[in-house]
Amino acid sequence: MSVRPALLAILSIAPCYGNQLRVEFERRSGGGRGLNVGQVYSTLDRLERDGCVAKASPDAAGLVVYHITASGRAEARRWLESPVASADARDELAPKVALALTIPALDVAAIVSAQRDATLAELTRLRAEKSLTLERRVVIEALILAAEAELSWLDRLPDIVAAARPYGVDTDAPRRGRPSRHTTTR
Question: How far apart are alpha carbons 99 and 24 in whole angstroms?
Fold first, then answer.
């Protein structure tokens, strides 16, 4: 799953420390992938540079809380509501839907429906390919089977989506986090 928009989606729920974001990412994405806290902070630095997040002043422990900006909120919303390209679906789609299920006030049924429409359009396009070389036909057949499997999976999601119970972020202070660069050592 793409780290940048996933972190923004989590920040759309509530401000977080960097390590808190790492924990929330792993918890909300269905456990498909771990995330290095260094990757979280480098992504946060880029998000801040791009105007998608803003840092608060360091707390008493020197930890920095990140807040999403309007620009970041719009980017997260676009990512959540945009279908995943079929070529990326295997690595991106299931964790993205898992994350979406945890975000309050998000129409996950509409997200799944849009993805289903996009996958069906791609399947139709693949089935219509003509004049294929033998090599291309092998690839197309694999892509057709993957799209059919994705449609089957998407058709199973309505009951899961209906049972979703979105939740906020864990408000306990993180055990670790990157201290502000401006704190003094005692």
Answer: 9
pTM: 0.78
Q: Which residue has the tokens 């390209």?
A: 85
Give the dihedral sign, CA 14/17/23/26: positive
Identity (one letter) of the amino acid at 52? C
Q: Are 60 and 20 in contact (CB under 8 A)?
A: no
Q: 136-145: list long-range contacts, CB under 8 Å, 24+ apart.
A: 143/86
> What is the rounded end-to-end Cα distance, in angstroms, of the chain?
40
Q: Which two tokens stand for residue 145?
A: 């089977």
Query: 3-class DSSP state for residue 132?
Result: coil
List per-residue pLDDT tens for the chain, 186 residues long.
Answer: 789 999 999 999 999 999 999 999 988 887 667 788 899 999 999 999 999 999 998 888 888 999 999 999 999 999 999 998 866 656 788 999 999 999 999 999 999 999 999 999 999 999 998 877 888 888 899 999 999 999 999 999 999 999 989 888 887 765 555 544 444 443
Of 2, 35, 1, the closest CA to residue 21 belongs to 35
Q: Give the whole-angstrom CA distance, residue 164 versus residue 141.
A: 34
Strand-pairing partners, residue 66, are: 16, 55
Answer for the pair 155, 6: CB distance below 8 angstroms, yes or no.
Answer: no
